[in-house]
Amino acid sequence: MLSLLFKNFAFSLGSVRDTDISKKLTKIALTTGFVYSGLLFWNILNAVNTSFNILPDEYASSISYSVLSTVSDMGSLALPYILLIYDANIKRDFIVFKKSRNEISTTMPVIVSS
Fold first, then answer.
1. CA gap 89, 114 in Å, rounded
2. What is the CB neighbour count within 10 angstroms for residue 71?
3. What are phi and psi of 104, to 5 degrees?
4. TM segments (predicted)?
5. Helix axes of 2-52 and 79-86: crossing angle, nearest 10 degrees
6. pLDDT in tens, 80-105
7. Phi and psi dihedrals of 78, rounded to 5?
8. Are the beta carbons of 37 and 59 closer than 8 angstroms?
9. The pLDDT value given to residue 30
10. Which are the contacts of 91, defined by CB distance < 8 A and separation ≥ 6?
């Protein structure tokens, strides 16, 4: 009976943490999906433009492929930045917070007598 109680208690504690992780992963997945959907939309727009000439000729001839390659590279390399935005552990590892000079120590002095 006691082991069943501990199993239920451990499961309830783990479920809160699992929900937190699930929310973070959902945010990361949605943001990544949004970035890649933008890349797909850009490719479709360029493909449609070659057939139907929707956009001006100056755009299609001069900057279309340069912008496409740049945006594609940026989208492919976006995942580390997305993780940096959403994951607190990665923020803690990469962003160094400077301590202020006026910080008061919270430790108590210990006097050792012999």
1. 44
2. 15
3. -95, 135
4. 25-45, 65-86
5. 140
6. 889 888 887 777 777 765 444 455 55
7. -80, -20
8. no
9. 93
10. 84
